[in-house]
Design brief:
Blueprint: H1 8-14, H2 18-26, H3 34-47, H4 55-73, E1 94-100, H5 106-114, E2 131-137, E3 140-146, H6 161-169, E4 173-178, H7 185-196, E5 199-201, E6 208-212, E7 218-222, H8 231-240, E8 246-250, H9 256-264, E9 268-276, H10 284-291, E10 296-298, H11 307-315, E11 319-325, E12 334-336, E13 347-352, E14 366-370, E15 377-381
Parallel strand pairs: 1-3, 1-4, 4-9, 5-9, 7-8, 9-10, 13-15
Antiparallel strand pairs: 2-3, 6-8, 11-12, 11-13, 14-15
Helix pairs in contact: 3-4, 4-8, 4-9, 8-9
The chain binds guanosine-5'-triphosphate, potassium ion and magnesium ion.
Protein name: OBG-type G domain-containing protein
Keywords: GTP-binding, Nucleotide-binding
InterPro entries: Beta-grasp_dom_sf, DRG, G_OBG, GTP-bd, GTP-binding_2, GTP1-OBG_CS, P-loop_NTPase, Small_GTP-bd
Length: 390
Amino acid sequence: MASFSTSSAKAGSSVGGGGWAKAKHQSAGGGGSTLERIQQIELEISRTQKNKATAKHLGELKAKLCKLKRDMLEPSGGGGGKVAGFEVQKIGDARIGLVGFPSVGKSSLLTALTGVQSEAAAYEFTTLTCIPGVIYYNDIRIQLLDLPGLIVGASTGKGRGRQVIATAKSCDIILMVLDPTKDDAQKEMLTKELENVGIRLNKKPPDVTVRPTKGGGLKFQATVPLNHFDEEVCATVLKQYKMHNADVLVREDVTVDEFIDVIDGNRKYCKCIYVYNKIDLLKLEEIDELARRPQSVVVSVQNKWNYDYLLRKSLLEDFKHAFVLGSSVKQSPQVCGKDHILHDQDVVQIVKLTQAEKAKALHGKKTGTTIAGSNIKVEKKKEDKAPLKS
Ligand SMILES: Nc1nc2c(ncn2[C@@H]2O[C@H](COP(=O)(O)OP(=O)(O)OP(=O)(O)O)[C@@H](O)[C@H]2O)c(=O)[nH]1
Ligand SMILES: [K+]
Ligand SMILES: [Mg+2]
């Protein structure tokens, strides 16, 4: 992205210190709104070449940027989901949100999967509120939410963007509905809007522990070689958050952005499936290419193509492993992955890991269920909800 280089000394003084205030005064009328300051820093980051000499400066800019984005989302600006039309109670085993640009077929998909009539039409912004529906799949009860179309700038409040994204943040899984006739810039734009409010798609929380201490400064320890981050950058970021005393333990090769995610908190690590709808408009080769992309499913609501695969892909891949008893395994019970082929009458205990559950040891109730269309008995093991430790 960086098209030209800025020396670290120059960059350091232009935005890090005096230039920062200058940028504020230069702006016309509004006198340096949070949004303008965000844009200034984003510009500065894009202009700064990434190398060892600029790492500390970039870390400082990125930490400032994160704090500003948080400021913009938190106060009176209408963030959060408590807006008429968006107050939908969470029910069922999982909540899935339909996110996408206008008119990609989100409402059509909700109606097709749940039977709830959500108005669909050829004009943009047909849907203006959150419309819930329920899917029963293999006895799992899933709440599916249809949402208004997003536009670029949604995270800064354009359209109903903030309400939509706040609702998306409450989902366990996001189905990003995409137009298969357009290029993948749409995917990047939507991902960026979601990232702006702390949603991380198909990523794991960084393996980093930060423990504030009463004194002693920064104690930094890494158990793996770090290629993008070091103690000095860590100290710069922590200083922005006024954390001068802390024990930091880094167990993976993190970037400064990932480290800031840990410090800034309030991140949502969400599974995302990319749903290319309207594939009836494409040639077979084009469909084939889209279907091979990672985490992607191709569907046509109009022709009722591929719903079952969409649901399997969305839900069953969440099941990390299963204990299988029966004729398909040599040893009963045996731990199996999702590719294991079951025999009729096998008993399966599925261990489903959601974000909040990963951190906690297993203590669970078991509920028996049956996979639709077969005699296979499934026992689902539910784990206690627990807050994530950082
Ligand atoms: N060809 C084709 N058209 C479809 C398909 N699914 C939906 N459409 C059409 O696409 C248009 C938009 O559908 P909607 O369901 O309203 O789209 P949306 O994403 O909910 O739109 P907004 O609520 O405005 O954001 C409608 O005219 C649908 O009939 C499909 O699989 N194939
Ligand atoms: K529409
Ligand atoms: Mg709609």
